Amino acid sequence: MFESRAMQHYIYIPILSPSEKLKVGVTDYLTTEISTSKQKRFSLVTFVDSPGLVDGDMKYPFDVNKSILWLGDQADLIFVFFDPIGQALCKRTLNLVEQLNHKHADRMKFYLSKADEAGHESDRQRVMMQIVQELCKRPGLNRTGFDMPTIYIPSMNQKASRCANQIEDVCKEIEKTINQTIQNTLNSLEKDCDQIACMVDEKVQKDSAVYSQNIRARFRGAAFGFFGMLLPFLLLMTYLLSTQPKSVKKMLGEKLSDTLLIYLGPLARLWQSIPQDYSMYVLFAILGVAFIMLIIAKFASRTKPTFSRKQKKHLLEIQDYVQKVVKSKKP
């Protein structure tokens, strides 16, 4: 990931999802290489190699430090490979390694790469001592039990090296992390399935509560609408019975009009007590009250949206599938 004369550093990421933080600038300089190997779960691994970092006035077309730190936040493992050739320790690189180590010390793994090119055992020990001393000078990298295995890629045409090659340990570390990530994913899958089931239950319960509220709202609206129509009708009938009895008897019949007069007698006598000059004002007031009650009925009957039968059935089907099919796939 970082590269100088003395070091190369790689971040290992099982799955790297796109992020808004890696926008124009970074993506323009990304290249991808795909390997079809299935050895040692290689298909489950994504390696991200950072651009080289050197001291001096070299500038990059994007904020390389922030990009690398963000990648470190996403990675499951961060490999720091020290190249013995040149024996140079880039200050800019070490600053970034120190920042990564401060947040992700448990993910950081240090290796001496190309160890077979470091000369004899004494030369190799001297290189490692120099690297360790430089690292320990920094408080953020000075830790007990500092381990830096030696690794290299053997060549078929190269003579056998006496240098211990611990590259298999790197593979085991990656495989161990993959297993742990898979287990964490499975645990998360079970938790997510339960969460989805709870969310469906909550939505269905909330929908049922809203449905009950809508029924009450419709009942209130119907009640206000009924009284808004009944009250002016009764008052109008009593007004006609008290002021135009002959016309009412002719229109409704004598028997029905007499029955109405019995039940509406008190209201009819009330109309008779109102002066003739004010009767029209009272009539308009009654119509105004009726209009107001109809407006109240309209607002009181407002309902909230609820799930249709098809939508509710679909939600329950999702819940059933997640619980019985998806969740059951966890070994």
From TrEMBL:
<protein>
    <submittedName>
        <fullName>Uncharacterized protein</fullName>
    </submittedName>
</protein>
<keyword id="KW-0812">Transmembrane</keyword>
<dbReference type="InterPro" id="IPR027417">
    <property type="entry name" value="P-loop_NTPase"/>
</dbReference>
<keyword id="KW-1133">Transmembrane helix</keyword>
<feature type="transmembrane region" description="Helical">
    <location>
        <begin position="278"/>
        <end position="300"/>
    </location>
</feature>
<feature type="transmembrane region" description="Helical">
    <location>
        <begin position="221"/>
        <end position="241"/>
    </location>
</feature>
<keyword id="KW-0472">Membrane</keyword>
